[in-house]
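REVIEWER CHECKLIST
Item 1: Sequence provided? yes
Item 2: Single chain? yes
Item 3: Sequence as submitted:
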Amino acid sequence: MLEIYKLFCSVNYPLWWLILRIRSLIGKEHKKRYVEKLGHGFKERPVGDIIWVHALGLGETLSLVFFLNKLSQTFKDKTILFTTSTFNSYIAFAKLTVNKNIIHQFAPVDSQIALRRFLYFWNPRMVLISELDLWPLRSMEVKKLEIPLVLFNSRMNEKKKNDRRIIYNIFKRTLSEFDHIFLQDEESVKYFKYFGVSENKLSICGPFKSAGTDLYVDKAIKKRMKNIFSNKIVWIAASLHSDEEIEILESFKLTKEKLPNLTLVMVPRSPEFFQITKKRCLKYSKKVSVRRSENDFPERDTEILIVATIGELGTWYKLASIAFIGNSLDLKSIKTGKNPFEAVQSGCFVIHGPKMLEPGFSILKELGVAEEVSNKFEISGALVKYASPEIRKSKIIHGKKLILNNKKLIYQFIDELKLIYKKREPKT
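Item 4: Structure as written out by the authors:
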């Protein structure tokens, strides 16, 4: 099967060109920069060594911002080439403030022509792949050049293991190309071993999300919205799965009876479907606004604001007092919760559903920094309880201290990278 895949990658360039061209025309790829995925249109290569860091999409990108800045400070005489695969990750990253020796490009697709153009042009001295965005040909082409290859901030559970069993041999070969694999938790070790990874390649680095991130905050928007939201309690429901929206709106209806000045900011996981969200919201309030662009602002009497933009979550967290972190209610369609640490770092008290299951998330509930809720009545109860700034204050302080302490995970991992970089073998 692997040989068939390699053969496909040697001839699939025209297919990738067609797919990406169509996606660019319908707005799912950057209209000009999509060619980077094909091995064209690169920025000018800086002089000196390149360290290539790759993340797949928006969530992975945001969770790595703090790491990228610290990595670039450690390797200040080198360039950090950061690649992503999705358009939304590019939009969000473009708004962030990062160090000058960090540059962004779109990652090459798994095509022999695109990959070889990319590797020949950038000639990286070390390659870091985040989480589980693994492509067989990419790993093999990197190792052909004897470049140290590191998988980091990765995890695997029973479901992810089972999803990859059908391609067992390909996945095993892909993982075998990595020199070092750093995992988020101990549980993942057995699943990586199942795919033939030797224990001496595996280390635990912890979940990077728990160290917080440097989310973008637009000061102008924040100032204007603070004026609009004056004398209101702002509750944000972020990364909402569509199936959670009704429960959130029902809890909003219940809570408004006790907190008439409550304003709900809804940030759906899929902002492109905002019209469906708006239709639902109008059944609960006639004062609904939608933010689709930088120039869209709600009226003062808005009760529900739907944010359908990319890269503004940090601003809205700063404006809110309480944050519900979505994709976490106990519904059949939901697997695991989204990142709560961004909200904690921004000064929100966090509430979340029972499916907040990723590594590191449980500590928030154990320390009382977050509260688990299961239904509209519990959500409403938590909103009423934590509407008081006095009750929230100490919990928010503890949350920020936890994130500050968790940043040592990043520093320890960078220390490991310094050793790997120092020991790297020169290319022949």
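Item 5: Key structural point noted by reviewer: The chain has a mean pLDDT of 94.
Item 6: Recommendation: ____
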